[in-house]
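#structure-requests
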Amino acid sequence: MSKIMLNNLSKSYKNKAIFHNVNVMVEPGNMIAIKGKSGVGKSTLLNIIAGLETATSGSYRLDDMDMEKKNLNQLAKVRGDRIGYISQFSPMIAKLTAYENICIPLIFKKKNGKLEVANMKKIVELSKLFQVHHLLNEKIKKLSGGEIQRVGIIRSIISNPALIVADEPTGSLDDETTSIILNFFQEAKSNGTTIILATHSQLVADQSDVVYNLTSGGLHLE
């Protein structure tokens, strides 16, 4: 479980303000949706929460950790231990199969580079749930955009993260697959996983506990 607190968070690039005065507290096991116009900084805010970049000012606490005081190596360790990041485009290693791409975060955690049987079983279970089981041995280049997105989601959640950060996780998926993913999110929530996502989908927003709109002046309840 993970509790998140953002206090007066601001981000600027080359003296150009992206957003400022972002304040929010997310309790463990909650799912919040962030909406907003394209270019307002939703992806940037999610990158900060995922530990991929830092804010210009303000504070970000993940449980008992001050994330703004951690260096890049420390942030990478926190991501590996606690955070599952679902990106908008799910970048993959083209020469690897879908199965091998999913295994990457698990292998990084194993000093001997070997996977436990339980992890292999979980990959099979999740791939069946997300309807890509028949594609596990296919090279990524043979998969469609929607199939790659589903593989990316499995890769992001395979390590049982306490926090899932998702940038438009259903953007390239059909309604049926979107429902599968939302059902998974609901189950993860019931087990204490905290979920923060950016979306343009009203269906996704309707299943969230709280919906915010991000503007240059901060987060506002919808």
